[in-house]
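Weekly structure sync, notes
Attendees: PL (lead), two postdocs, one rotation student
Agenda item 3: pending single-chain targets
PL asked that the sequence for the first pending target be pasted directly into the notes so everyone works from the same version. It is reproduced below exactly as submitted, 436 residues in total.
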Amino acid sequence: MKKIMISMALLLSVGTIMGQVDKAALKQLQKEAKAQVAEAQKINEAITAKINEKTATEEEIMSECKKAQALVRKAIKGGGVAENKLGEAYKTLVEMTFQPHNIMLQHAVNKEPFDTAFFYTNLKSMTDALQGEVKNTKVTKGEAGNEAHIKNRLANLAQCGDYYIYAAQFNSECGKKDKALEAFDIAMNYTKKYPEVADKAQLRIPNEQIAYYAFHTAHEGKMYDKMDALYDEAVKFAEGALGTKQVRASSYLERGDSTAWANYVRDLTLAEPKANEDFIQMLIAYYLKKDKEAGPDSNLMMPYADEILAKDPNILIAQYGKAYKYFESEKYDEAFAAYHKCAEIKDDYYDAWYQCGLCKYRQALALNATVSSIKNQTEAKKTLERTKALFGEAIPFFEKARECAPDEPMKWAFELRQCYSVTGQAAKAAEMDKLL
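Predicted structure, written out during the meeting:
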């Protein structure tokens, strides 16, 4: 029991000493902070006087303001500024950030070089100081009051949101993509960070446009996670939506993730087929390649094309993809029907008309190859007649292809010559000969 009592006494003694040390340290801290703020105010008064007299150089203004800023920030951060003096300290910091800001902004307007890194750090100091002054200054009314001054400070703070967009652009141009994204984020969330101006701050461009700039900045910096996080907001910017979608898609390929690319493009095209026909074409080509690599049992393309056509039966490339797959598999009847649908969708589509004719032509060739092996003469004759009929059925489709590309006989003249020859139309066959 006695040991416990002694230990408690020791603890009480140590606590008392620590309390005395803390009070002494706090007193010293407050003394230092007071001196730091006083020195900053002295610098402020001196440089302001020189500015008013128009005797201060830009270099001097920047140097003195940086020095004063550092002193005030150190005093506030150290915790030595008395609560009733915080507003005054922040006021000095505001004034010491205004001058450099205006100088650098003018350089930007004139397209002259300036310290873009300092522009951003100074801007952050300025907005935080404005907020600090507003929060820590008691508003007084009347002729001698500060109400008008605080309203002016709030107006300054509300205006600064746009400057973060500038800072982001400056940082991006200098290759500081991480800082650029940080500045864009502050701009997008400006009224959350500075709720004092939630009803006053109106940025010159909407959030979705800022997100659009940030999204592309993240892509340029290969910061894919941040890019993905910005996508939903960025794609709302209608003017750049297509480019945003294209960049999102290409980014998956940059990451080496073709599966993610295919999934993204699939979802995108199924949601809006008509608006994304180029993407449909790319994904059909991708699925065809995958099917070819995987062998005859693979069937990725056809179900996808069917899903697209279920959404919109007039998507030409989806219909053409099905036709191509059928033709490749020598399913000429199915291929013909699909190609014919393509021609119905686009009447001047050379390839669709040509392929319709080619389906009949290939069927005729395949049937003709069987004639010599048929021993029954009657059946052989019937097969030969059917072969000629198929060549004849191909003619109007090749002629439609000819109408679509009249100056390119190499595209259709050979097949027409064959068809005319087999069907006994020697004069027309000779005409095709002259074109070849």
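Discussion points:
- Confidence is low (pLDDT under 50) at residues 1-6, 8-18.
- Residues 357 and 394 are 4 Å apart (CA to CA).
Action: rotation student to compare against the earlier draft before next sync.
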